[in-house]
Amino acid sequence: MQKLLRTLISHNWRPGRAALVGLIATLIYTAAMEGDQRLFGNRFSDVRFIQGMIDGKGDSRSSFILSWVIHILNGVVLAEIYAAVIKRFLPGPNWLRGAIFGETFIVGAWWLTPLADKYHPLIKDGELPKLANWKSFGQNILRHLAFGLALGLLYKDGQKAQEGE
Question: What is the pLDDT, as a whole number, of residue 164?
Fold first, then answer.
């Protein structure tokens, strides 16, 4: 098992740097989310989505705070996965690697949206718009592109950082 982990995890992985970049990329994602809600006229919010999964209503202060923590931690965890494992297997310059990672993540998860539309309490109640449509897909493509570009541009692994990339 340890040999597999040593093979899988990049020797140049910088966990502290990846966590910081994940935080920054999540803040950029969140800014894109706020902007695309106005641009598309679709008020889907990832934070409200998480909040609805926590308490089913999305109206308590504690679930609001916890949903923000989960949203940020999700971005940090994705950045760690990108930095530790995925980045070195992707083609092209860093910005392209990050963009591929962000877009692959959302396209890979998108098949779950009909389930969210059917079972998520805030979507069922009409407090959040449905996800399984082109408008929501477009929003998520933009959000994850912003996240991925930030990740690719800001994360420098150990070897590249030392070479002055």
Answer: 43
Q: Which helix (H) or strand (E) is 3 found in, with range?
A: helix 2-8
Q: Is residue 3 part of a domain?
A: no
pTM of the model: 0.88
Report the domain count for the chain: 1
Report yes or no: 132 and 113 within 8 Å, Cβ to Cβ: yes
Would you say residue 164 lies in a domain? no
User: Which spans in 41-93 are helix H?
Assistant: 46-55, 61-81
d(CA 104, CA 87): 12
What confidence tier does 58 reach under pLDDT thresholds 50, 70, 90?
Answer: low
Instruction: Kindly state whether residue 8 falls inside one of the protein's structural domains.
Output: no
104 three-state secondary structure: helix
Instruction: Print the domain residue range for 32.
Output: 14-155
